[in-house]
TrEMBL record:
Organism listed in the record: Oenothera villaricae (Evening primrose)
Gene Ontology terms: biological process: translation
The organism's taxonomic lineage, starting at the top: Eukaryota, Viridiplantae, Streptophyta, Embryophyta, Tracheophyta
Protein name: Small ribosomal subunit protein bS18c
Family: Belongs to the bacterial ribosomal protein bS18 family.
Subunit and partners: Part of the 30S ribosomal subunit.
Length: 107
């Protein structure tokens, strides 16, 4: 195996150790907004298990808690649009003559 392939294989693995996202004392509940909000993306989506580094049981409990918090209006379904202009009502422009082929239709 030449040197370029070995470098590629080595770069795949990461040796960073991170703390587990949920400590043993943390309780997964819809009222624990500080815990739940860590598992929601900026777009308001629930992050996947791989991203969260949770067990299957923890991910299920987090998903249920997030959905309950949204229903009870503790969390928004969609986050506030940051940096976007306020939605303006649609304004209709004056009608123009419509063309049919090369001729214009008379009103």
């Amino acid at each position: 195996m030449d040197k370029s392939k070995r470098l590629f294989l080595k770069s795949k693995r990461s040796f960073r150790r991170r703390l587990p996202p949920i400590q043993s004392g943390d309780r997964i509940d819809y009222r624990n907004i500080s815990l739940i909000s860590r598992f929601i993306s900026q777009q308001g989506k629930i992050l996947s298990r791989r991203v969260n580094r949770l067990t299957l049981k923890q991910q299920r409990l987090i998903t249920i808690a997030i959905k309950q918090a949204r229903i009870l209006s503790l969390l928004p379904f969609r986050p506030k649009a940051q940096g976007l202009k306020k939605a303006q009502p649609f304004k209709r422009r004056q009608s123009t003559a419509r063309t049919v082929g090369l001729r214009t239709r008379k009103k």
